[in-house]
């Protein structure tokens, strides 16, 4: 499996390539829908669109002229950019994301190894022969894959190859079943299961096949080893207590400890990247299996995959945000992914109409994680949140895209949009002023397939807003509707002032309305608004 440190380095490398592009121009888009401007038609064939990069975002516009991507000062973990000046017809968030390696009998009488990204794209066959290739796993640096190849009814070998399928070679050849290899965190060793001693044991060896050592030496069946991502511990299953349960031991085989206590069998244990949680397959009843999440004490068990069909063989993504598993909920055994936090979205990765199994995640590559603006269905089967935008504010951090707020104006007011970053807005916030002949609404992204949060400003007929963003989560937290222009070039610019004392900020001016982070109006016709740590304290 890939390790958090590796994927973080790769993510940072990707962002270093695109962060300098913050000062380039792009084309923003309108609010869409009556009474707002309808979505602008695409600006011609994709080859005719101007393409720009802002942080992890790829943005396409019908023209390169006029667009501005302006940095908004932030003292937190989130970077912000104000986007305006032209119509955005397409905006996608790119991120370093794991790939999935698995085995399948797709278009073959035997199991072969395949790889794809986390959305099923870039599907590639890695092996093609007349034997079974199974149980593949990425090396920690993503450059190699280890797996087991069935030679005969009594012989399986451990094979290692480069990630592109080249340079395959046998490691630690024996005349027994050697299978289910996984890598040590530094990539120098492998653990695997073998029946060479007359029953299943867990062995360890170096990647050149030398110094093969029996770690379990048990009379039971010890199988499915999984090396911890950053500590010298190994998960495995064993029936030494009756049914197959999950055990953990030190990397030298010492101190084997059972961490589950259920009446039914357990299989396919795997580590969360933090090393403190695990997932596994639990046999329930009527030949049904469920993916379960637990901690190392076995006291936090919860059924996770949540279907009446067989779900098994889980694997965490490198950032812990997804669990990928095999499921029979839509065919003979396709791969699915489920988010590990709310809203726990589930989506299908593969559609090969054959049994797929034993996925492993790693070897991250730049991948389009979200399509925020674009044609229907282009957000990995979901409709993007918007079909276009004239202006907005995007937030991102070192791991990728975080948030986008779209500014809605009427078609006739597009050319009146002005945006100016604010300085010294106080602890926990980054701010920007927005002006137009009339600003109709603000809409904030809430994730794929979910309705955005809406600030309906039409009744206020605002011509100028102050927007404040939380610098730690990227969300819009305060919206102040002013009674006059807030443009730095305007004669009235001095009417809005910020007074910062510690973690408190007072904003003085003339505010027709104050809105909170949910889109609700909380005050009207006030002269002072006070924040503390990005939280509204009072308006008076």
What does it look like?
- This protein has one helix and 40 strands.
- It has 540 residues and is an all-beta fold.
- It has two domains: 190 residues, no CATH class; 273 residues, TolB, C-terminal domain (Neuraminidase, 6 Propeller).
- The strands form eight sheets. Strands 31, 32, 35, 36, 37, 38, 39 and 40 form an eight-stranded antiparallel sheet that branches.
Number of domains: 2
How far apart are the termini? Answer: 55 Å
Mean model confidence by pLDDT: 86
Helix coverage percent: under 10%
Shape: elongated
What top-tier CATH class of the largest domain fits best?
Answer: Mainly Beta
The CATH superfamily name of the largest domain is: TolB, C-terminal domain
The rounded Rg comes to 27 Å
Q: What proportion of the residues form beta strands (DSSP E)?
A: over 45%
Poorly predicted regions:
1-47, 489-494
List the helices and strands and how they pair.
Elements: H1 4-18, E1 50-54, E2 57-61, E3 68-72, E4 79-84, E5 88-104, E6 112-117, E7 124-125, E8 132-138, E9 144-152, E10 155-162, E11 169-171, E12 178-183, E13 189-194, E14 201-206, E15 213-214, E16 222-227, E17 233-238, E18 245-250, E19 257-258, E20 266-271, E21 277-283, E22 289-295, E23 302-303, E24 311-316, E25 322-327, E26 334-339, E27 346-348, E28 356-373, E29 391-397, E30 400-409, E31 418-421, E32 429-435, E33 439-444, E34 453-456, E35 464-470, E36 476-482, E37 497-501, E38 504-515, E39 521-532, E40 535-539
Antiparallel strand pairs: 1-2, 2-5, 3-4, 4-29, 5-6, 5-28, 6-7, 8-9, 9-10, 10-11, 12-13, 13-14, 14-15, 16-17, 17-18, 18-19, 20-21, 21-22, 22-23, 24-25, 25-26, 26-27, 29-30, 30-33, 31-32, 32-35, 33-34, 35-36, 36-38, 37-38, 38-39, 39-40
């Amino acid at each position: 499996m890939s390790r958090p440190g590796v994927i973080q380095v790769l993510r940072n490398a990707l962002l270093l390539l695109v962060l300098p592009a913050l000062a380039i121009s792009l084309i923003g888009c309108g609010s869409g829908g009556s009474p707002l401007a309808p979505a602008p038609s695409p600006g011609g064939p994709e080859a005719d669109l101007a393409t720009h990069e802002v942080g992890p975002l790829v943005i396409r516009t019908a023209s390169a002229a006029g667009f501005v991507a302006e940095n908004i000062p932030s003292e937190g973990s989130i970077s912000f950019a104000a986007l305006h000046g032209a119509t955005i017809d397409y905006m996608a968030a790119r991120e370093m994301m794991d790939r999935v390696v698995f085995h399948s009998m797709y278009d073959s009488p035997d199991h072969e190894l395949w790889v794809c990204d986390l959305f099923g794209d870039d599907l590639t066959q890695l092996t093609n022969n007349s034997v079974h290739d199974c149980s593949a796993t990425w090396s920690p640096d993503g450059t190699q894959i280890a797996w087991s190849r069935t030679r005969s009814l009594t012989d399986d070998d451990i094979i290692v190859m480069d990630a592109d399928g080249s340079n395959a070679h046998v490691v630690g050849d024996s005349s027994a079943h050697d299978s289910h290899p996984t890598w040590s965190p530094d990539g120098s060793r492998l653990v695997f299961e073998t029946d060479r001693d007359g029953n299943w044991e867990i062995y360890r060896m170096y990647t050149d096949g030398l110094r093969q050592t029996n770690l379990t030496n048990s009379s039971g069946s010890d199988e499915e080893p999984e090396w911890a991502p950053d500590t010298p511990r190994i998960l495995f299953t064993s029936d030494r207590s009756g049914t197959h349960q999950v055990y953990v031991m030190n990397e030298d085989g010492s101190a084997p400890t059972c961490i589950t206590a259920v009446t039914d069998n357990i299989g396919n244990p795997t580590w969360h990247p933090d090393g403190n949680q695990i997932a596994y397959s639990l046999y329930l009843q009527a030949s049904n299996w469920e993916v379960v999440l637990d901690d190392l004490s076995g006291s936090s068990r919860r059924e996770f995959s949540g279907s009446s069909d067989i779900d098994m063989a889980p694997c965490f993504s490198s950032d812990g945000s997804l669990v990928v598993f095999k499921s029979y909920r839509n065919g003979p055994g396709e791969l699915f992914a489920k988010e590990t936090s709310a809203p726990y979205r589930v989506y299908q990765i593969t559609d090969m109409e054959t049994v797929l199994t034993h996925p492993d995640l790693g070897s991250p590559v730049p991948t389009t994680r979200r399509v925020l603006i674009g044609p229907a269905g282009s957000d990995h089967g979901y409709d993007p949140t918007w079909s276009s935008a004239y202006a907005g504010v995007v937030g991102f951090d070192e791991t990728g895209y975080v948030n986008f707020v779209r500014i809605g104006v009427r078609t006739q007011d597009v050319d009146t949009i002005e945006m100016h970053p604010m300085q010294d807005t106080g602890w926990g916030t980054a701010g920007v002023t927005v002006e137009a002949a009339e600003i109709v609404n603000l809409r904030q992204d809430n994730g794929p397939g979910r309705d955005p949060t809406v600030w309906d400003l039409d009744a206020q007929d605002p011509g100028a807003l102050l927007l404040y963003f939380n610098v730690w989560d990227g969300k819009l937290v305060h919206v102040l509707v002013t009674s006059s222009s807030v443009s730095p070039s305007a004669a009235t610019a001095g009417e809005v002032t910020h007074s910062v004392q510690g973690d408190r900020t007072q904003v003085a001016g003339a505010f027709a309305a104050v809105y909170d982070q949910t889109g609700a109006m909380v005050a009207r016709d006030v002269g002072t608004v006070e924040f503390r740590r990005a939280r509204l304290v009072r308006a008076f």
